[in-house]
Design goal:
Length: 216
Amino acid sequence: MAEAVFRARVEEDGLDGLVVVDSAGTGGWHEGDGADPRTVAVLRAAGYEEDHTARQFRAEWFGTLDLVIALDEGHLRALRRLAPSARDAAKVRLLRSYDAAVAPGGAVRLGGTVSSGEAPTGARSHDLDVPDPYYGGMAGFEECLEMVEAASDGLLAAVRAALEGEGAPAGGQPTDEIRSSEGKVRSSAGRDRPSKDHDRASTEQGRSPAGEPSVA
């Protein structure tokens, strides 16, 4: 779902030549399958195009990626465990940390500092999660779409600013983790348990061997 939404935002903003959006799951239970039919229905009803095939995130991808967006805290932890280095682990962020309504300024405040990808001090762990709608009805998928859309606007602004050299994306990410306008953004993150909708998008940005946008 988040892959389709963020790709649409990128295309609408004219960044599709610079930013590549893709997705993968933290588990391989449904590798090769398409998205949950309810996800497809909700996306199409909202005017989004959807063409998704599930696959599993690979640790070796971190070397060519700058930003990895997880949809909930469980995925955040799983992806950071896969990271080969502390620098790679720092690339993993929560999607809703870019939602200004949830995290003012596009960041989560932790004990007086501004960070991203973690729940606020004293908050319930799911405060920044996009909930898993798999075991519920259509209303849950519609709610997820609303959350993804709101956060995608902030994420797009952060990526755009980084590509324009205006500084780090929201959440205090170091500027050198977003390379240049020759980079790409890919999308990956998934479920910690089997679910048809397990490829809940995350975003990454990197450089192809030729220095041109490409999908790995």
